Backbone:
């Protein structure tokens, strides 16, 4: 379920989109039912699904249990999403290349 992106590729989806489209919709699960199964509040899951919160390590474990996936795949998706956004502002950063004297 893990997709690989480099910073030059198209914007990767937020993991919440992946959960909604590849996990909840095919199973016909509501947000409420999925939240109950994951052991989280509806508000917590809704924030992830709507891209307002990311996948924490604990949520990654919960998702791996619920959907028979790896925890690492969820964290990788989150990292790819965040890195892509950070790379979009690379030129705005005031970091300098360090070289040996």
Residues:
């Amino acid at each position: 379920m893990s997709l690989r992106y480099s910073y030059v590729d198209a914007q990767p989806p937020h993991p919440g989109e992946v959960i909604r489209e590849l996990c909840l919709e095919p199973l016909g699960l509501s947000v409420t039912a999925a939240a109950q199964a994951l052991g989280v509040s509806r508000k917590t899951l809704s924030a992830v699904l709507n891209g307002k919160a990311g996948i924490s390590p604990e949520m990654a474990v919960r998702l791996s249990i619920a959907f028979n996936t790896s925890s690492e795949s969820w964290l990788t998706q989150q990292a790819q999403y965040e890195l892509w956004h950070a790379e979009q502002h690379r030129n705005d950063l005031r970091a300098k290349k360090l070289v040996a004297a």
Notes: The chain is about 55% helix and 0% strand. The radius of gyration is 16 Å. Residues 71-87 form the longest helix (17 residues).
